[in-house]
Amino acid sequence: MSLVVIALIVWALGWSLNRWLANGPYAANRWTGLCVAAVFGATVLIMWELIVRGLGVPAVILPPPSAIAAAFASSTSILWADFVQTILKGGLSGYVIGCGAGFAVAILVDRYDFLRRGLLPVGNFMSALPIVGTAPILVMWYGFGWQSKAAVVVLMVFFPMLVNTVAGLRDTSAMQRDLMRTYGAGYWPTLIKLRLPAAMPFIFNGLKISTTLALIGAIVAEFFGSPTVGLGFRISTSVGQLALDMVWAAIVVSALAGSAFYGAVAAIERGVTFWHPSQRGQ
Amino acid sequence: DAHADEVRLQLQWVTQAQFAGYYVALDQGFYEEEGLDVTILPGGPDIAPPQVLAGGGADVMLNWMPSALAARENGLPVVNIAQPFKTSGLMLTCWKDTGITGPQDFVGRTIGVWFFGNEYPFLSWMSQEGISTDGGEDGVTVLKQGFNVDPLLQRQADCISTMTYNEYNQVLSSGVSPDELVTFKYEDMGVATLEDGMYVLEENLADPEFEDKMVRFVRASMAGWKWAEENPTEAAMIVLDYDETGAQTEEHQIAMMEEVAKLTAGSNGALDEADFQRTVDTLLAGGSDPVITAQPEGAWTSAITDAALN
Amino acid sequence: MTDAVISAQHLDLTFQTGDGPVHALRDVNLTIDKGDFVSFIGPSGCGKTTFLRCIAGLETPTGGDLTVNGMTPDEARKARAYGYVFQAAGLYPWRTIGGNIRLPLEIMGFSKADQAERVKRVLELVDLAGFEKKYPWQLSGGMQQRASIARALAFDADILLMDEPFGALDEIVRDHLNEELLKLWARTEKTIGFVTHSIPEAVYLSTKIVVMSPRPGRITDVIDSPLPRERPLDIRDTPEFIAIAHRVREGLRAGHQED
Amino acid sequence: MTDAVISAQHLDLTFQTGDGPVHALRDVNLTIDKGDFVSFIGPSGCGKTTFLRCIAGLETPTGGDLTVNGMTPDEARKARAYGYVFQAAGLYPWRTIGGNIRLPLEIMGFSKADQAERVKRVLELVDLAGFEKKYPWQLSGGMQQRASIARALAFDADILLMDEPFGALDEIVRDHLNEELLKLWARTEKTIGFVTHSIPEAVYLSTKIVVMSPRPGRITDVIDSPLPRERPLDIRDTPEFIAIAHRVREGLRAGHQED
Amino acid sequence: MKGTLGPVLTVILAILAIWYVACVPMNVREVLSAAERDGAVVTPTDPVERRDAGAVGLVLNNTAHLGASWSLDRAKLPAPHQIAVELWNTTVVEEMTGRRGIVNSGSLSNRGLVYHAGITLWATVLGFVIGTGLGILLAVGIVHSRTMEMSVMPWAIVSQTIPIVALAPMIIVVLYSVGLQGMLPKAVISAYLSFFPVVVGMVKGLRSPDQSQLDLMHTYNASKSAVLVKLRLPASVPYLFASLKIGIAASLVGAIVGELPVQQGGLGARMLAGSYYGQTSQIWAALIAAAALAALLVWSIGALERRTLRRMGVV
Ligand SMILES: Nc1ncnc2c1ncn2[C@@H]1O[C@H](COP(=O)(O)OP(=O)(O)OP(=O)(O)O)[C@@H](O)[C@H]1O
Ligand SMILES: Nc1ncnc2c1ncn2[C@@H]1O[C@H](COP(=O)(O)OP(=O)(O)OP(=O)(O)O)[C@@H](O)[C@H]1O
Ligand SMILES: Cc1ncc(C[n+]2csc(CCO)c2C)c(N)n1
Ligand SMILES: [Mg+2]
Ligand SMILES: [Mg+2]
Known about the structure:
The complex is a heteropentamer, with 1 copy of chain A (282 residues), 1 copy of chain B (310 residues), 2 copies of chain C (259 residues) and 1 copy of chain E (315 residues). Chain B is α/β, with parallel strands linked by helices and 310 residues long.
């Protein structure tokens, strides 16, 4: 019980430190944001550790962070193989194919208004198909390997990408389009010189949403059949073996990979859409 | 009545005739007669009964012994209090046209296996046969099999795990004739492990009140099983009544009940020490990567069944 | 009418909208000669923009005749007969100032060398040499507007159409740009169509002031300016200037009172 | 200085920004008497808005003294000493015109009956009676701006601060609103601080014109207008008017040339 | 809305046509195996060879034996009409004639989709309400406290990379252990999924008033709560609804995911049962029911949005 009290004290300390950081003299510093988030994260971890120990929560229900860290450290090679299988093979290839297809179809849909009016509502309906239903079907179609995971990811990211790109391609002001018309510019110059650049913020929005979807899709699809490697396989098998520390280690891998993936796309976005007001602010 | 003792039973799979005994006991009032108010919690994919037990979500769970013993080694002291299933229903089912005739032919093949704590019998078997399961050229490629027999039908695997009472029937009912298949029952291969035992937490057993409750529970459950063996059709219908998903079919459940009856037939609920030892030996024989590393102590008790059955 | 660069006869335009038709232009007759600087002034919604867009071939009249350089406006547009400057600078933010000015040149297929040369020349013309590599948002509003004029000048069309190009700028900057625009006009001898809300601006710049009134949009007065072509800024305090301004204001007020 | 409603002495304000400090106001000295109509004019970025915001207690000066009704600006703000009108009407689109005018009254805790009475009165004052139930988007820009003035008048502060209230409107509507504003000022005898970009507007409205220049923002000229309080619109064509306008323009130009 | 009906119908017809055609190669191996069992001679005769042969090649070599492509029981890809029949049977027919149908038993049949859609719907709505409520509260906190924003916001983003869907079974077991059963565990997963879009949208919405709108409040010396009630909340309504539409769809996914491990009814359980018994048309029917439910929910939010915005006068 005393551990729980300590946990509450840690919380109070962490929070007041953050208050000071966020509102004090260093508030404007670039690194303060990172610090505050790190302090918050550390506080939560310490509290977790203390409360789990203090209340004697069984390790098969919720292991303490120290045990998770230990499991992570001692199984790096297994987790690396899982990472390669799920994220690189399943997730990334699906992401590339799905986003690419979404983009290409968006261009088509944008070109032919008939398609836009016909495809978008139907696509909207189909995007509501939950993956937990489609994943078993795709595993049946594409086998147990990473291909079926990629297929699930393709299905998940296709529509967000399509919708965002279509919205982006239409996000030019009448004046910007008229300017092109005063030059007597046809479809392709207008697309390449105006609409695509203008669509970039939307396209990247789609790409960013798709990162987390890709990750989740690839992992969840492994629940419906997989080879004996992969983050989803690891999570589900380790739950069955009551190796909860390993489950959480796999979750950490997925969170790290997801954050890195998201961060990478966001970094590219900053490079490509440097001109957009939302990027200029920072 | 209001004074009935509550017992929550965690199944290890969805409501089906595999668990007919318990539903019959519930439906026919056997539990009530013992003064028990029993709640049956259906399981499902990725629900780990030991975890539910550990979290206090259930009082008794059904589990395969390899999984239970592994949980014990992982620091969750579960104890077998009764073993209604005498015989193992687990087998590998292969296409005959792949040319597989025995375990020696598995090398280079793709085999579907249930994981989630159910992989231990297969891994033990393979290591006894000296076949690697790491997917190399000289070993078998293992797939984490989903919940159905599609991998076999789609020929994504050469062999898959099936239960005599369930998945095998599903293969047949999809139009495949038994002649097209080769089956390897773990029972016949000498690597059978005990399935569907009742387990409780060791610490709970220390409480005489709990122990008494379990005695009554096991007694009523076994009565349910015997009733089910004698009236398979009615038992199947009872199971159907309790199936909330409405997914089960009459025909399939009756067939399942008939097969399950064969597995429970040899048991009055008491665990046969020889069966236990055979299971443990199989698991210990796991070669480089045994499922359990030491002879388990106190992993089962006859106290409950002794009290229940006299 | 030998010199008529733009000629409108009985021009009519009705927009079909959800709330029924909007009669934006009615029976508009106007001739603009080569080298003219014509301002269009009128209250909001009187059809100034619409008329300019008709000339540019961006809007199709529903009645009457309109020729630009003797062609239909659409042909003229495809022949790249004019440069168009919008109210807001409307520079593409992902392109540098240089890149923005290069945009029409790329589309029209000028050679790389020619492009560079023209960009340099028009940047000097609008006094923005040295800003080629900057992005639009790094420049003040006035500089952006100059860049957009440069963009319209880069491919050397004979006609320059400007729709309230200085509407968003403050008076001082506006004065300055007006002066510059006059110089540029003198140097290049282009024909300019210029939409504005500001009476002093219209009077200061134009050789011809077209006063319009709304609902439906039509021309109520066309004033040929007696002011000399050479105009220092303080010409605005002269009686001639004030007299013209007065006439314009009266014309506007008359149009306004009707509704 | 008995009547000074607003008094600034050696006012200084420096913003700390990412790109280093911006000196927005330097050594600003000004006294505004009760009943004055004071216009602030100057090029973009000269600190007009900043000065008005200082008076309103929305910005804190980094040096010098500033009193409003003898209090600090912040005290004056809390005492609800002034009404503030922003450049855009800034009506809340989810409230009707009446609801928008009621907003300050709700916040300041006026009784329901009092609220209704005041809304009615100010709507009449700005000539919008009958529009209470309309939503802002159902009104023209000029009407919206009048509503926003009504909102600032509703709680009857003695001071009215207006930051380019008519900047977004066209000249004719603007003329009209200027006339109305003068009448309102005459009727209510409020003290008005008014920011504008337009020389004619400043000259037409004010009893005192404050000319400012940028980098750092300071006052370069304060002109006490000799024009009578009663001003028809065509006073703008009189020589006195033109003379003042000229002086203002020169003041502005001087400030501009420096940089 | 105007002018979409024609194109939508066209697209649907095109999809159906492609679907029917696709059934042939997708199902060709099962079709040929069945034909072979019935005594037909198919090429190649060896099923292992067939496994490795291309589907199109098989179709072309066995054109005479493809009749069963659209009527297989365990089709890899069931034909649209098979799904339609399944939908019809598990809704209308089951309720009208089934032993447990509403006609014979007075309550909805657990073999019918309506019953399961209902179960899923309630968990969805409950989770959605919880998630939305918490999301709005957190957004209000974030907007008012810099500390909260800087501490919580980055982790809220990281939390979205955790495959919560994969953890659903564990979460449910953990909730079991604190005594939560039935609808609530599903609702918790729903809430988790719908929470994030609401936070993001509401933070944006609560911050959407521009400086002059805030300054106006400041000139009235308005309290924080007055600013929240009279300015920030009304201004955030359009953002809220945009997030709610995403949130309710996410909520539905959460409920379905929560139903997988606990086979106690709901569309999720239905899908899994379909998969478990190889009843592909049952999966498809449940999938379509889920998508229709999602469409209905999003539409309802949209209708609510239109009504609210109209009441607020914002067109
Ligand atoms: N694309 C359009 N569809 C329907 N109505 C239009 C369209 N464009 C303009 N209008 C209407 O036509 C009339 C004239 O518009 P126009 O933009 O030409 O006015 P303007 O004189 O340029 O006004 P402003 O000074 O405000 O720019 C207005 O009533 C306007 O609402
Ligand atoms: N909050 C702020 N932070 C930093 N700099 C500011 C801030 N507000 C204004 N400034 C700077 O202070 C100077 C004066 O700005 P201010 O808005 O008062 O000018 P203004 O005269 O109102 O201009 P405009 O006519 O364009 O409205 C400008 O250089 C502006 O960029
Ligand atoms: C995820 C998961 N996969 C397999 C099993 C193994 N299993 C134990 S009993 C049973 C039913 C057989 O008809 C099955 C499949 C499980 N429990 N959970
Ligand atoms: Mg216009
Ligand atoms: Mg300003």
